[in-house]
């Protein structure tokens, strides 16, 4: 009798496992509908200049899409091409930064302006598949979205076939049941006035520079935000020794006892951004951010100091990996 029960138990578990496996595999190509934004690339010099500034400055595209081996140049704030290929190991697998040069075979040369805009704003690719929620550009204004797409159209084509993302079984489960596109939180503005106001600082911190995305604790399996906004605690692998060190984003709320902002006045904040990367392991894009204007840095400083203080002590922002 006991042998029969054990046999049936093993059979049922095997059937459930097989059913789960088959279901997960069948759901790997889920599709999602998203509108095609009315965005068209421009050759206007002012728009291209704004796009270049965003790509190599506050939007820090080069930190992900520049090729391996150009880290020092990016940290110096230099202009490099963006053929992608950089791997980002995560608990769910490895994500690869795409080639965003104008190459027609391996880059964005054969992708329409509207399709590119849909990817950036709605997280849906041209085949209607959801993109992993890394880029923070869903709420980018129409003007800035146009500027970014216009500029990357000018990048010299590089034939670089980037590997497809490599998902482990956990990643496939996330893709099958949890992953979905992240669109705008409201109607994106047509344009946002560039000034030193708190409102513009919020736009930069949440929709362009991704201060919110890195300084808020997240679940690396799903990308979901699970911590207080800007209170730190998001863990990253070291960008130079990923198997040896982990970095933790600090609390940048204006909490006087646990927030790093208490250390800086506005002038010191700007000076720190101008001085570039000091800790080689840090994933913070200090190079691109060093190119930001005083106006934008003032806006971010003023916005961060206007948000709710959160008492959240981050003991160590760098520690050795044990596993």
Structural features, described:
There is one protein chain. The protein is mainly alpha-helical and 323 residues long. The protein has 3 domains: 30 residues; 159 residues, no CATH class; 132 residues, no CATH class. Helix content is 36%, strand content 6%. It is built from 12 helices and 6 strands. Strands 1-2-3 form a 3-stranded antiparallel beta sheet. Strands 4-5-6 form a 3-stranded antiparallel beta sheet, with no helix packed on it. A hairpin with a 7-residue loop joins strand 4 and strand 5. Helix 1 packs across helix 7 and helix 10 packs across helix 12.
What features would you highlight for this structure?
12 helices; 323 residues; 3 domains; mainly alpha; 3-stranded antiparallel β-sheet
Mean pLDDT: 92
**N-C termini distance:** 44 Å
Instruction: Sketch the major β-sheet.
Output: 3 strands, antiparallel
The number of helical elements comes to 12
Q: Helical residue percent?
A: 25-40%
- Spans of at least 5 consecutive residues whose pLDDT stays below 50 are none
Structurally, how many domains make up the residues? 3
Beta percentage is 5-15%
| Number of β-strand runs | 6
| Computed CA radius of gyration, to the nearest angstrom | 21 Å
Secondary-structure element pattern, one letter each: HHHHEEHHEHHHEEHHHE
Structural class: mainly alpha
Task: Going across the biggest sheet, name each strand in turn.
Answer: 1-2-3
- Backbone shape: globular
